[in-house]
Amino acid sequence: MFAVLAVLMLVVVACSGKYKPGGDTAGADLGTETGAAGETAGASADCTDQTGGDATITISGFAYDTACLRVSASNGVTIVNEDQSAHSFSVEGGVIDQTVDAGQTAKVKSLSALAPGTYSFNCRFHPPMVGTLVVE
Ligand SMILES: [Cu+2]
Q: Cys staple from 65: which of 34, 58, 104, 106, with CB 3.0 to 4.6 Å?
């Protein structure tokens, strides 16, 4: 019985040695997860193109449905709030600050007050809710 266990442990050590040479297995796994999360964040930097017409942002679960939104200044933005809590679409600089009550939809008719460029937006009530707006 002891001999079988010893052989099994040798096999385990040999196998893990192949994947994570010379390292602590738990630490190596943690590093892999961190790397994967970083790749996901990088991919979400790609903006959703909504320049073809009025844009739509949906809020659900205390988050905007898109991390980055590309819009045309000559169009508007419709904000749909699916939560049971009021939220806002507040663009940095304060030119646009649209509150959307719980379960309601609000519309910013035009983004022409914003010069072309990249802006951050957030929710006035929940600062961790953030997004990026690229105005063309
Ligand atoms: Cu909010």
A: 58
